[in-house]
């Protein structure tokens, strides 16, 4: 092997190592941010309306902003990681954030992760990894106008319209009725909208890159359309992710959100950039198996869901306290009135008096 080839191989290894380390650091920051933000949401909910029921008091909670900054650092590290290493290496490492958040939630938030829940996490991670590893490579556009043409093709317009329709259905009909009891509502909104967020942010990133290179993209209306879509989608994601974290167990929110968001993002990218063309049947079968594995993991995780007790401790204790035993008053044969507990033998002539709230 020539020295030039050796140097090239060494440079590639060094770049991949940098990307992998940045991806691991990103996952750690993102996983920690879930915990810090949830602690901030709990603090805000203790003194005002919870985010899960439409409150926005968390915006004045410093701990929540610490979590947001932590997440921003993680996402920045993840973005930089893609500059050094391929997506096939960086993207699967994002699953480490699930493990970080689940472990920290177990110890810091007292959100117990059952053994079956661990199995569900593993299934979600394995399935998402299979999808990512077998996802087709996308062609990199070289202008905002090119992305606009891809975004306005009929197939992607159908996907975008379906995504918006599903999101509106979840937000306007399902969330008010089932949002507090079904984890898939809030997480589904974040995931569906998130797939559109990635597509629009990618366009904004290309515009910024071209502008830095000297080709100004600010004069194109497509650039500002993508900026507007990105801002709207990010706000929606933020609101409903906070609702999900405030309402449900973090150990469940993290893997389900990761699995659904990753799957839908790959699907949206494949539709928009026509990456499915030229794929072999074995690759498509592998991606299908990965998707089914993700679904199995979501079902397992959902079956182990433990609803959060959002009641105050005193109220919850009063509602769950055992009632005293039933007391039976009876008139004995000699006319004396006596009483006895349920576990005592009852005479034939008695009158039962039960606490009114016994039937509650």
UniProtKB/TrEMBL annotation:
Principal location listed in the UniProt entry: membrane
Subunit annotation: Homodimer.
Gene Ontology molecular function, alphabetical: magnesium ion transmembrane transporter activity
Organism the protein comes from: Triticum aestivum (Wheat)
Membrane topology: Multi-pass membrane protein
GO annotation, cellular component aspect: early endosome; membrane; plasma membrane
GO biological process, one term: magnesium ion transport
Pfam families recorded: Mg_trans_NIPA
Higher taxonomy: Eukaryota, Viridiplantae, Streptophyta, Embryophyta, Tracheophyta
Name of the protein this chain belongs to: Probable magnesium transporter
Compartments where located: Cell membrane; Early endosome; Membrane
Family statement drawn from the similarity comment of this UniProt entry: Belongs to the NIPA (TC 2.A.7) family.
